[in-house]
From TrEMBL:
The keyword Metal-binding does not apply. Transmembrane segments: none annotated. It comes from Psychrobacillus glaciei. Residues 29-133 form the PTS EIIA type-1 domain. SUPFAM superfamilies: Duplicated hybrid motif (SSF51261). One of its GO terms (molecular function) is kinase activity. This is PTS glucose transporter subunit IIA. It comes from the Bacteria. One of its GO terms (cellular component) is cytoplasm.
């Protein structure tokens, strides 16, 4: 009985996009590779759009549409940064389907991405998925190389 009371709730974080899973240290940007933003993984997309990896709320949507932050019901904050050096695209190549403060569900469409345009205009399409408050969380990674939107479990997080 007491084990149920003291067992930590684990937040399941699913793939927001289909592609190849990479370690953050493989991201050619020190902000991500040195985990300055927090723990996480990166995905080399195979196309498709960005979908919600959790049930939660849209915390922040970048004015340039290249990044979105979500907060889960347990307070875990997740940043999805689409490509590298994409802030300079000033929103071109992205179509947003949600707004700040909106409740979202796992698998819900967040942002449609024109990957061909991003490949031509940005330095990389690699997409980091980072738990920005990971200093307050225990993060565990799943051992998989490929992921499918809304199906593949990438990470779990629980409060320390």
């Amino acid at each position: 009985m007491f084990t149920k009371l003291f067992r930590k709730h684990k937040l399941h974080i699913y793939a927001p996009i289909t592609g190849e899973i990479l370690s953050l240290n493989q991201v050619p940007d020190p902000v991500f590779s040195q985990k300055m933003m927090g723990e996480g993984v990166a995905i080399m997309p195979k196309g498709g759009s960005i979908h919600s990896p959790i049930d939660g709320t849209v915390l922040l949507l970048s004015g340039t549409k290249h990044a979105i932050a979500l907060r889960s019901n347990d307070g875990t904050e997740i940043l999805i940064h689409i490509g590298l050096e994409t802030v300079s695209l000033k929103g071109q190549g992205f179509t947003v389907f949600v707004k700040e403060g909106e409740r979202v569900s796992i698998g819900q469409l967040l942002i449609e991405v024109d990957w061909d345009y991003i490949r031509e205009q940005a330095s990389s399409v690699i997409t980091p998925i980072v738990i920005t408050n990971s200093d307050e969380r225990e993060v565990q990674y799943e051992v998989v190389k490929e992921c499918i939107i809304g199906e593949t479990l990438l990470m779990t997080a629980s409060s320390k």
